């Protein structure tokens, strides 16, 4: 193996390592975002269940209820997330008497 071949092989190995590290970093960022969205969905569904059964919502979420059609109402739960993002869950539920 000549010196030129060794330099080219080392260069290719370095480029491959950088690409693999960048892909790993991207996967870690994607995992963090996925965790944040999963927590927001879980919180929204929990709030929806609480509000649907007649309880009060947490202060961090915004809940709106409005009549929709006969015996139904539309409930919207808005959960704030980090970075200014928001998750909104909308459901039709039977109106409580």
Short recap of the structure:
The chain has 97 residues and is α+β, with helices and mostly antiparallel strands. The chain has one helix spanning 3-52, and strands at 62-69, 72-80, 86-94.
Uncertain stretches: none
- Characterize the overall form: rod-shaped
- Beta-strand residue fraction: 25-35%
Number of helices, where a helix is a run of at least 4 consecutive DSSP H or I residues: 1
- Terminal-residue CA separation: 85 Å
Helix content: 40-55%
Run of helices and strands: HEEE
Specify the biggest β-sheet: 3 strands, antiparallel
| Overall tally of domains | 1
- Beta strands, count: 3
What features would you describe in this structure?
The protein is of the alpha+beta class and 97 residues long. It has one helix and three strands; from the N terminus they run αβββ. A hairpin with a 2-residue loop joins strand 1 (62-69) and strand 2. The radius of gyration is 25 Å and the shape is rod-shaped. The model has no long low-confidence stretch (mean pLDDT 89).
């Amino acid at each position: 193996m000549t010196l030129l071949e060794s330099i080219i092989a080392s260069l290719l190995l370095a480029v491959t390592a950088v690409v693999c590290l960048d892909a790993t970093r991207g996967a870690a960022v994607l995992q963090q975002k996925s965790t944040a969205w999963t927590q927001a969905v879980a919180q929204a569904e929990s709030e929806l269940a609480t509000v649907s059964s007649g309880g009060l919502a947490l202060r961090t979420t915004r809940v709106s209820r409005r009549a929709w059609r006969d015996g139904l109402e539309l409930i919207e739960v808005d959960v704030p997330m980090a970075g200014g993002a928001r998750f909104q869950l909308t459901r039709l539920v039977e109106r409580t008497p």
